[in-house]
Amino acid sequence: KENRFNTSVTPSREEQSAISTPTIMARSTMGMAKYCCQMGRLSEAERYARKGLDSLTKFNMHTQSGDPYYLLGLILEEQERTTEAYDQYRKAAWNGSAVAKAMVRAACIALKQGDAETALAHARLALSRDAQHPLAPVVMALAYRDLGNKKAAQDVLDRVMAEDRMNNLVRWLG
Questions:
Q1: pTM of the entire predicted model
Q2: I want to staple 116 with a disulfide (CB 3.0 to 4.6 A). Which of 30, 70, 83, 146 is the partner?
């Protein structure tokens, strides 16, 4: 499998030392999770993400943003653990700043699993939070096609193309 991860990113000395101290800084730990994910070291990334989430939720059930859950979802999805990834994306969507990106990933998983109705609902929710999300209308169009509604799929694609003639993915689907 080709390495498609960004290998040019290196954690700062502060991030590396924060993880080795007894008092773990959750932000640095999540930074290491992201770094390891970008490097393709997914099991290590998962360990850091779970450790960071444990720190972030030690005294409060919810994190300040959904991003830590979203990152863990990406890591799990890359490991083809889609059920666990889906659960993490749903947790990430509790917070407004992560709803669109988390629900689009959840929609992709639902679509891949053959659940076009759920994928459509998730994509709609993503677009309600970020009307310009580039992947949500694509998922919607594919879900409509899976449901046999080619006209609705084409309407979604036409609407996106009217707003963004340079959206090559939508152009390709149209």
A1: 0.82
A2: 146
